[in-house]
Structure to design on (402 residues):
DNA sequence: TCTGGGGTCCTAGGACCC
DNA sequence: TCTGGGGTCCTAGGACCC
């Protein structure tokens, strides 16, 4: 009996944020399709965090790059139309896509907001017929195009969906790697990034094929376990469990860039509380508690450093976590002007205990306060009007204290 | 004209215990 | 008293992804 190997499709929305924005605007009666003019989804240009999140093909052709500041993009492309992002709308579109894919597969593994892996069901038709149906239905029902990569491994399916775009289907079976994968520059490899490529080039490896035909021990010397992984990928081995998404998050974090450099300690504390509030809100939404708190700082000259501490008892209470954050911060802070502050909660576990732990200094009142703040945040988002004066001891914020 | 935000995993050194 | 080695946890930093 012949053992049929499993086949995976990697579905990748073309220019996701921009496509979704374009479709939304057309539906709302706008005449211009953002995809046909130089346009971009970008942050607030007045803010120093205003960068390009997604761009149209015409914008790309004029040199606009994802991640660059808006003013830099405008210099290359003065008629660039920038629209603000709308994350909750993109989240909804992503859900619609996954819902549609349920008609084609019983195994859907979301990889990111605009990508997922699905397994192919032979009963539905030939590989190409099914892929074409998926592509057509997404376009007809949801209005945007996707690339589909097909292979017997997820890794290669992911590489294949990145071939010529947009609106294309490509295969890259393990049996095809020598002709379709090995001639490519190493930059085309998934999980090989901008730091690793120069290291490989320095030892004369510039194509996937050269990587595949290098002694694995040499790769290990230069890149440790990553070298072994990349060697295996070059030969068509699949991504292991390590790189697969789990249902429960391993960490929940939040960070914010200030509109100006922070130097005043009271302001920094208030900023930390703001970030902690958002992070704890999300942690409680996940119904989890954290054992470890990490604070990261980015200074005005872009130096990044972090410090963390593991607690005696897990918690998701805002005031507790805020107090710990303040302690960690006070120990690590060297007084530089700060550009960004981040708080990440990790070492998570399910919050099953509703009864209070005697050792936890956590009152019923605090619980209620957290709930109230969560409700407001969930309803209105964090518009910076909510702060807890009692925690900050600052007069500046007293007007809007709860 | 400087460079977002949210994640995951890996590495290396130190502490601690047996 | 001195010495060694293995296992595990913690912490800081870095690479990579979208």
């Amino acid at each position: 009996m012949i053992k049929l190997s499993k086949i995976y499709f990697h579905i990748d929305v073309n220019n996701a944020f921009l496509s979704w924005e374009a479709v939304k605007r057309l539906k709302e009666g706008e005449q211009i399709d953002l995809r046909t003019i130089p346009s971009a989804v970008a942050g607030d240009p007045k803010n120093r965090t205003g960068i390009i999140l997604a761009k149209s093909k015409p914008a790309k052709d004029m040199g606009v790059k994802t991640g660059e500041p808006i003013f830099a993009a405008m210099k290359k492309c003065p008629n660039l139309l920038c629209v603000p992002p709308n994350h909750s709308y993109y989240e909804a579109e992503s859900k619609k896509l996954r819902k549609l894919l349920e008609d084609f597969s019983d195994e859907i593994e979301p990889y990111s907001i605009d990508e997922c892996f699905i397994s192919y069901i032979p009963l539905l038709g030939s590989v190409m017929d099914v892929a074409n149906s998926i592509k057509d239905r997404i376009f007809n029902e949801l209005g945007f195009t996707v690339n589909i990569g097909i292979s017997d491994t997820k890794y290669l399916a992911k590489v294949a969906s990145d071939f010529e775009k947009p609106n294309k289907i490509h295969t890259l079976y393990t049996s095809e790697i020598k002709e379709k994968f090995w001639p490519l520059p190493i930059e085309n490899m998934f999980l090989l990034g901008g730091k690793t490529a120069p290291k490989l080039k320095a030892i004369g490896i510039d194509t996937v094929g050269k990587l595949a035909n290098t002694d694995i021990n040499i790769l290990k010397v230069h890149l440790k376990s990553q070298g072994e992984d990349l060697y295996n990928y070059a030969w068509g081995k699949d991504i292991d469990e390590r790189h697969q998404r789990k249902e429960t998050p391993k960490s929940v974090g939040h960070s914010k860039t200030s509109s100006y450099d922070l130097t005043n300690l009271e302001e920094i504390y208030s900023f930390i509380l703001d970030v902690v509030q958002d992070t704890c809100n999300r942690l409680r939404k996940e119904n989890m508690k954290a054992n470890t708190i990490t604070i990261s700082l980015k200074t005005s000259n872009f130096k990044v450093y972090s410090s963390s501490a593991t607690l005696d008892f897990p918690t998701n209470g805002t005031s507790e976590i805020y107090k710990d954050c303040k302690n960690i911060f006070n120990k690590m802070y060297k007084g530089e002007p700060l550009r960004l502050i981040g708080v990440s909660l990790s070492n998570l576990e399910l919050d099953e205990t509703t009864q209070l732990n005697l050792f936890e200094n956590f009152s019923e009142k605090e619980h209620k306060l957290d709930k109230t703040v969560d409700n407001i945040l969930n309803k209105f988002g964090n518009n910076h009007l909510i702060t807890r004066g009692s925690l900050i001891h600052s007069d500046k914020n007293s007007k809007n204290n709860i």
Observations:
- Residues 16, 111-115, 190-196, 226, 243, 292, 294, 304-310 of chain A lie near DNA strand C (CB under 10 Å from a C1').
- The first helix of chain A runs from residue 16 to 27.
